[in-house]
Specification:
The complex is a heterodimer of chains A (about 160) and B (about 110).
Chain A: H1 14-18, E1 24-25, H2 33-46, H3 53-66, E2 70-72, E3 75-76, E4 79-81, E5 89-99, E6 109-117, H4 124-136, H5 140-148, H6 152-163
Parallel strand pairs in A: 1-5, 3-6, 4-6
Antiparallel strand pairs in A: 2-3, 5-6
Helix pairs in contact in A: 2-3, 4-6, 5-6
Chain B: H1 3-22, H2 24-32, H3 40-52, H4 56-66, E1 73-77, E2 80-81, H5 90-94, E3 102-103, E4 110-113
Parallel strand pairs in B: 1-4
Antiparallel strand pairs in B: 1-2, 3-4
Helix pairs in contact in B: 1-3
The chains are: A alpha/beta (about 160), B alpha+beta (about 110).
Keywords (chain A): Sugar transport, Transport
GO molecular function, one term (chain A): protein kinase activator activity
Organism (chain A): Eiseniibacteriota bacterium
Chain lengths: ~160, ~110
């Protein structure tokens, strides 16, 4: 009897492992950078990832002062490490109307990936996830599909396919 | 968390960000990915302003310890310092005064309670 060899299963990337349905805001309520960061940090605090929302918000604002994390093409990846973060996490938020984010190209942001992490000595995964996000959303059709996806599972699959 | 600790936490987070932005390897990687890091001077000015708000003795202790440890302000979980992972004496836990800043007797790090 011939044996059927199963295709080797791809191991998931750090980004995929960190994407969680509970850390997804399908549609942001606010449209300004400052209030969007507040909205996202409040979500992290609800899920006990931010111990003190104000401290985490402040460090994200300082990170934006260092240089805008609005990458252009409707994407922003605000990221920072804070003493008041309990674990490394990625929060994905969408905005159909768009958010004013001081992006490099001046265009509004529709997909916002917020990365937070505690301040451990060396954390290569943190930087790897930044790179994975940039890679996952580099194509316009993918960005459009993520923005229009009906549920979080579809978004996760789309991102996974880009990183495969 | 008392205001002294809040200021120290903010200072520690800012110091880490400045350190990483000045780290050639990390900065290059971030810039390659499309994240400009042009505001280091601005962060350093914010850092100076924040440091002036912190009690001088406490700030000196923080500065001295930050030469040894990446994280000087660390949480206590149960009765364990999460900087050195050593247990704290029971008395330390009993004598918590909300207005004071506690230190780990083993490593000297500044502690905050979860």
């Amino acid at each position: 009897m011939p044996t059927v060899s199963a295709a080797p299963r791809r191991s998931e990337t750090h980004l995929e492992l960190h994407l969680r349905p509970s850390l997804f805001i399908p549609e942001l309520r606010t449209r300004k950078k400052s209030s969007v960061l507040e909205e996202m940090v409040a979500h992290l605090a609800e899920h006990r990832i931010a111990r003190q929302a104000q401290a985490v918000l402040e460090v994200l604002r300082q990170r934006e002062a260092l240089g805008s994390t609005g990458l252009g093409k409707g994407i922003a990846v605000p990221h920072a490490r804070s003493t008041m973060v309990t674990e490394r996490a990625v929060l994905l938020a969408r905005s159909t109307k768009g958010v004013e984010f001081d992006s490099i190209d001046g265009n509004p942001v529709h997909l916002c990936f917020l990365i937070v992490a505690p301040p451990v000595d060396r954390d290569p995964i943190y930087l790897q996830m930044l790179a994975e996000i940039v890679k996952a959303v580099r194509l316009a059709p993918v960005r459009k599909k993520i923005l229009e996806a009906a549920d979080f599972a579809s978004i996760r699959s789309l991102i996974g396919a880009q990183l495969a | 968390m008392n205001t002294k600790l809040q200021a120290l936490v903010a200072l520690q987070d800012l110091d880490l960000m400045i350190r990483e932005a000045k780290d050639p390897e990390q900065a290059t990687r971030e810039e390659e990915l499309g994240f400009p890091l042009s505001g280091v001077d601005k962060l350093e000015r914010t850092r100076d302003r924040l440091a002036k708000q912190i009690d001088e003795q406490l700030l000196q202790r923080y500065e001295r310890m930050s030469r040894r440890f990446t994280r000087v302000v660390v949480p206590v979980e149960g009765r364990v310092c999460l900087g050195c992972f050593m247990g704290l004496p029971t008395a330390t836990r009993r004598n918590i005064d909300p207005g004071t800043v506690e230190h780990c007797e083993n490593c000297g790090r500044i502690l905050y309670r979860l």
